[in-house]
Fold this protein.
Amino acid sequence: MSENSEKYAPVMEHLDELRTRLIRCALALLLGMVICLALFQQQLTDVIMGPFMMLNQNMIYTTFPEGFLFQLKIALLGGCVMASPVIIWQIMRFVLPALYSNEKKVFFIMTFFGIVLFVGGVCFGYFLVLQPVMETLIRLAGEDLTPMITASSYMSFVLGFLIPFGLVFEIPMVTYFLTMVGIINPDMLTKNRKYVLLVVLVLAAMLTPPDIVSQLCLAAPMLLLYEVGIQISRFVYKRKLKKEAKRNKTQ
């Protein structure tokens, strides 16, 4: 076997393994979607439609496929939730062999807290923010306009609203990781507050539906979580300095 063949053999093995993992994830997602369609479709629809139904409004669809596609998207979301343990496990099985034992521990911890924070952000947006924002937007439109919300536009609004909340709640964990590896420190975060404010406003405008209410509802938690991240960074940074001081004394 030539030197080039020996060099590329491990690469092809990793690509084959990645393809196998992706196929398993896709099959798990498809199975979860089918189960949701068959058994839990009405319950999932009630969950998705819950905030809208509290507004005492009627939802419509304007094309023949729109209503069916709306139900299909709901089943897809449910399938993602149901298949998430399999998907996470496949990702871990692919990544873990390349990590050292201490890195595996950090990976497990960050994966756990990453999932918890993302779910927490989505729940925060769903239970506390989504319905008041929709109610405010309808009220701001005025009494001369009659809301006729289509199924597809509602689904796009909900996803575009809740997913950014899940991502924003990852800020403390990202801050912890970047401080731990030495990329950032609390002094850097404190000095750059004014620039962060500008970035937060731009991100809120990009990640949320194009209305000022949604943008402010996302920007406020981002700024609060940034302040939490500063405190986390300060705690991690002090621990690093203590460990380095102990290491220097022993040398």
Notes: The chain has a mean pLDDT of 87. The chain has two domains: 1-98, 103-251. The first strand starts at residue 59 and ends at 60. The beta strands are 59-60, 149-150.
